[in-house]
Specification:
about 290 residues; mainly alpha; ABC transporter involved in vitamin B12 uptake, BtuC; two-stranded antiparallel ribbon
């Protein structure tokens, strides 16, 4: 039973990162119609920002660390996202989705190649913050405090994002801006700025996930490439552009993957893709997607 609950915890942790990353992808695709393959590279950049801050950034005698990185890294990567959107992606909005996919895929390869050339392929260690070290003995299993924090924090971030987009006036502006930008701009709303900030927010979500993942998976140039294919499968299963679909499917498939590792480990690397094939055969728009 301890092994079973241990795999469930691993599944929840993986599901937390799947949910955060697929949420960022869903926001960008749902509001900008761009299939953003740089998302894995942005996730990696967030982890490297956290590592650099921990290693090199001091204010007087005070060394910045994990908690500062949760704010600084998403801002830095979000600003990089603004640069990408303003200089490259804005030229592709009226073209076929394939152009955006090819551009972002090539950009991701460039970013990963630069960091791999600089830091190599091996992971760089990142210590768990002292405040979240240790854990709790629940009787049926041992719960590391940091891993519990990751699950709870990611769930809060995901639900807050869903609430803003689906239940607030700002979210209604964003949705309307993607469906009829000319009409929304006629009401005095700066649609291009709104689109840019939306992409920056999706990039910041990926960076936040990277910071939270650093103490668990270490910091590696290829950490984004290792997870992005699974995250795209999660987005497809949940429904392209569906915010709630990304959250529910991310956590749900993480748990399924964890259970598969316990009951049939050989299928743990393919179970998500098998589920994707079945879902697409039955409901091509995804579990929470809308038919067009």
């Amino acid at each position: 039973m301890q092994a079973l609950f241990g795999q469930l915890l691993v599944g929840l942790i993986n599901g937390a990162f799947y949910a955060m990353l697929s949420l960022g992808l869903a926001v960008i695709f749902g509001l900008l119609n761009i299939i953003n393959f740089t998302h894995g590279a942005l996730y990696m950049l967030g982890a490297f920002c956290a590592w650099y801050i921990l290693q090199s950034v001091h204010i007087g005698d005070f060394q910045l660390g994990y908690w500062s990185s949760l704010i600084i890294a998403p801002l830095v990567v979000g600003a990089f996202g603004v640069l990408i959107e303003r200089t490259m992606l804005k030229r592709l909005y009226k073209l076929d989705h394939l152009y955006g996919l090819l551009l972002t895929f090539g950009l991701a390869l460039v970013i990963q190649g630069v960091f791999r050339n600089e830091f190599g392929s091996s992971g760089l260690p990142y210590d768990i913050p002292p405040l979240l070290a240790g854990g709790f003995n629940l009787g049926f299993m041992f719960l590391p405090l940091y891993r519990g924090w990751v699950v709870v924090a990611s769930l809060v971030v995901c639900l807050a994002t869903w609430y803003v987009i689906e239940r607030t006036k700002l979210g209604s502006y964003l949705r309307a801006g993607t469906e009829n930008p000319a009409l929304v701009q006629a009401f005095g709303i700066n649609v291009p700025l709104m689109v840019t900030l939306t992409f920056a927010f999706g990039a910041a979500l990926a960076a936040l996930a990277g910071v939270m993942a650093a103490p668990i998976y270490q910091v590696s140039p290829m950490m984004g490439a290792d997870i992005i294919i699974v995250v795209f499968a999660v987005v497809v299963i949940g429904g392209m552009g569906s915010i709630m679909g990304a959250i529910v499917t991310g956590f749900g498939l993480g748990i399924v993957e964890g259970l598969t590792k316990y009951f049939y480990p050989e299928a743990s690397t393919t179970v998500i893709f098998v589920i994707m094939v079945i879902v697409l055969m039955i409901k091509p728009a995804g579990l929470f997607g809308k038919e067009h």
